[in-house]
Amino acid sequence: MTNLTRLIIGLLIVLVLLTACQTEEQKLKSAEKVTQGFAVAWQNEDYAKAYDYFVPSLKEKRTKEDFVNFVSVRHAKNKFNLIYDKVVLQDKNLAYAYFIYSGEAIVQPKTPAIEMNYVKGSWGINGFASYFLDECP
């Protein structure tokens, strides 16, 4: 193997490692984008789009169609909005999203921390489990 071949192989390995690993800032921006998208979908009552932001383990519990129907019925009884506040990156696979919660009867400065997980190359919301686990009203 020539020195040029070794150099090319070495550069390729470095390039692959650099593109495969996101920096902490990139991960934070990615998590913020997911959180903002989720909040906008929720505000617009686009529950099908909101469903897309959840982690796979929650989506295994209820289909998108069932989720949309469930949330539509529940939300009609207890309507609230989520307004994006911030995301705090805990480590490379865990972040916490914060929203301002605004409902017909309540305005709360901030929601409790909503867990986010980095799964299969993207962030997902790992919260609001009752929308996946509760029985249909």
Number of helices: 6
Derived from helix and strand composition plus strand pairing, the structural class reads alpha+beta
Question: Helix fraction?
Answer: 40-55%
Radius of gyration: 19 Å
Report the major sheet.
Answer: 5 strands, antiparallel
The total of beta strands comes to: 5
Query: Low-confidence stretches at least 5 residues in length (pLDDT < 50)?
Result: none
- What is the average of the pLDDT values? 85
**Shape from CA axes?**
elongated
**What is the oligomeric state here?**
single chain
Q: What is the N-to-C succession of helices and strands?
A: HHHHHEEEEEH
Measured by DSSP, the beta-strand proportion falls in: 15-25%
Report how far apart the termini are: 69 Å
Descriptive notes:
- The protein contains six helices and five strands.
- It has helices at 3-20, 24-43, 47-52, 56-59, 64-77, 130-133, and strands spanning 80-91, 94-103, 107-108, 114-119, 122-125.
In summary, what is this structure?
This protein is an alpha+beta fold. Strands 1, 2, 3, 4 and 5 form a five-stranded antiparallel beta sheet that branches.
Please specify the SSE layout and strand pairing.
Elements (H helix, E strand, L loop, with lengths): L2 H18 L3 H20 L3 H6 L3 H4 L4 H14 L2 E12 L2 E10 L3 E2 L5 E6 L2 E4 L4 H4 L4
Antiparallel strand pairs: 1-2, 2-3, 2-4, 4-5
Provide keyphrases for this structure:
137 residues, alpha+beta, 6 helices, elongated
